[in-house]
Amino acid sequence: MALDPIKKNNLIIISIAALLIVALSVAVFYFVNKAKEKDKEMAEVVEMMNFDKQQVEKEFSDMTMEFDGYTSNIQNDSLIQLLQNEKTKVQQLLDELRVTKSTNAVRIAQLRKELVTVRKVMIQYVNQIDSLNSANKVLKTENVEVHRKYQAASENAQQLAKEKESLNQVVTRASIMEVTNISMSLLNNKGKKTNWSSQTANLQFNFTIAKNITAQPGEKTVYLRITRPDDDVLTKSPNNTFPFENQNIAYSASKSIEYTGDAVNDVLYWKVGEILPKGTYRAEFFIDGNRVGSFKFVFEK
């Protein structure tokens, strides 16, 4: 049975439309998959760009820390200033990098190139730092050696000074004169010895200046200082004083002698012009500002 021409045309149209729908569906499916692949590839590219940017940022940050490490270990102000200038430049580039989009590959590449340039400059400065550090180590070593020699010389000089001072003290002590063989006699008004204090007109002090070849020869003044039991000094005048241990003290009698270094026997007198109380008296001898002898005696009668 033959188809109606109209129905036949409709069937052809439907068949063609179905084919077109199928073809269109396949095309849409194909282009959708291609778009997804492109998006995926783009996402991977963007991720790689982000990673690359992060790496460049890390390189900048690491270099900033390197600058901090070098500037903290050197003392040269000029070199510190040069490093600080480069550090400032790195910080400016880092700030620009942080605001640059990851997709701006051209600018990121330029920034990385500038970073390489700065690194080369920094290497030159580092080499200068190493040279300075090496020179400083040599200088420190030399300074330590010089200090050691100076310390040794100083200690040696101090030791020599102490030995000299000790020797001077020995010589000074050896040069101090000494009065020995001291004795005292009571004399009446006729110059005769007596045992009665009430009859005493003069006190006679006999003494010997010992031999001393280290003492300075020449005219010497011998001072006699008589102290009563109440510690008052017997003296004829308040002006009768002599220097002793940074002060002037009273004396009872004095005498000038010519000393040659040999032993000298001599005598000093005290004319009694007051009532002498009973008790223990002390007689001291002084020469050249030194106490050179002492002696105690007692009035009992």
Structural class: alpha+beta
Number of helices: 3
- SSE string: HHHEEEEEEEEEE
State Rg.
59 Å
Instruction: Note the gap between the termini.
Output: 193 Å
**How many strand elements?**
10
Poorly predicted regions: none
Total domain modules: 2
Structural shape? rod-shaped
What fraction of the residues are assigned to beta strands by DSSP?
15-25%
Oligomeric description of these chains: single chain
- Round the mean pLDDT to the nearest integer and report it: 78
Helix content: 40-55%
How can the largest sheet be summarized?
5 strands, antiparallel
Descriptive labels:
single chain, 301 residues, alpha+beta, Immunoglobulin-like, three-stranded antiparallel beta sheet, 53% helix, rod-shaped
